[in-house]
Design a protein that fits this description.
By secondary structure, this protein is α/β, with parallel strands linked by helices. It is built from 13 helices and nine strands. The protein has helices at about 15-30, 45-55, 75-85, 105-110, 130-135, 145, 165-170, 180-190, 210-225, 230, 235-245, 250-270, 275-290; strands at about 5-10, 35-40, 60-65, 90, 115, 120, 160, 195-200, 205. Strands 3-2-1-4-7-5-8 form a seven-stranded mixed β-sheet, sandwiched between helices. A two-stranded parallel ribbon has the order 6-9. Strand 1, helix 1 (about 15-30) and strand 2 (about 35-40) form a beta-alpha-beta unit. The protein starts with a strand and ends with a helix.
Length: about 290
């Protein structure tokens, strides 16, 4: 059984205290566990929330740090790694929910140098695009499905890793905007011959942003994918799909469709009855349009 644990939570405009309290409670009751919990706020615009969450720094074995500016998802995780002092690092996104009372012990009893526990989609509103998208793909989150493509089905929302591996293979800090830093991390682990162990120890994904914010985040992620496409080839379904369209007129027609009707598709996606089929078409058209500009 692992005996040391640093629980690391990057925070951005979301309250990590409910999750942090549960993790703190669980860590306290694990026999002989030497632990710490560190939260770093990555320049949140909600300064009142940052002030409220600073109370975490007053808890035993806990630290809270607030950065003056946003440094990005990759860099803040690397910073958390340098702050950590224990042998094993547990990274969790700040908007996750811990619903299993054995969550910590499950990780401490697991094997492997990199362990991904997955996530479980909670209940939501069927008019919420993020909820509908996650629910439609929920079957891919099981440990059995993730093991089929262990490096492609890795996410930073909930994973355990040895500190030595993180120090040797930090996140690529050139990823400043939203998306895909975890995909590249999975690729780097494969290239280094480091296996990812997939277990059934999910954190809950119960918080869903509104449709307009989710569409904007998706667009930002697609721009990141285009910028880093050479690094991510073979690790992105979108890149694989686009590269599989070998007939130039087909690409032209998809771009034309997006130019003519993309605004209507976006209005549907941001509205009260978003369509997943429209979402898929919108993403393809948006990405091909970006590709055509360069």
């Amino acid at each position: 059984m692992r005996k040391e644990l640093s629980i690391l939570i990057p925070m951005y405009n979301a309250d990590p205290r409910p999750m942090a309290r549960e993790l703190f409670r669980q860590a306290q009751i694990v026999s002989d566990l030497d632990y710490e919990l560190i939260v770093v706020d990555d320049g949140s615009s909600d300064t009142a929330l940052v002030e409220q969450c600073s109370e975490i720094g007053t808890w035993p074995h806990c630290r809270f740090m607030a950065l003056e500016e946003n440094i990005g998802r990759a860099r803040v995780r690397n910073l958390l790694c340098t702050l950590a002092q224990k042998e094993w690092l547990l990274f969790l996104d700040c908007d996750m929910t811990i619903f299993d009372p054995g969550f910590i012990i499950n990780y401490m009893m697991s094997g492997g140098d990199v362990v991904y526990g997955g996530y479980k989609v909670g209940e939501g509103n069927d008019g919420n695009l993020r909820y509908r998208y996650e629910k439609a793909n929920e079957h891919m989150h099981t440990a059995e499905q993730r093991r089929l493509r262990p490096y492609q089905h890795f996410h930073t929302a909930n994973f355990l890793v040895s500190r030595s591996i993180m120090m040797a293979h930090p996140f690529d800090e050139s990823f400043r905007s939203y998306g895909y830093e975890d995909v590249l991390f999975g690729k780097q682990l494969k290239q280094a011959g480091i296996s990812i162990t997939h277990i059934n120890n999910p954190a809950g994904f119960f918080s869903f942003e509104d449709n307009a914010h989710f569409v904007s985040k998706t667009e930002e992620g697609l721009r990141t994918l285009h910028e880093k496409r050479q690094l991510l080839r073979g690790y992105s379904q979108m890149l694989t799909a686009v590269e599989g369209i070998h007939i130039a007129p087909v690409r032209w027609l998809i771009r034309l469709w997006h130019w003519l009707f993309g605004w209507l598709e976006r209005r549907n996606l941001c509205g009260k009855h978003p369509s997943l089929k429209v979402f898929k078409l919108y993403k393809l058209g948006y990405f091909l349009t970006i590709t055509n500009k360069q």
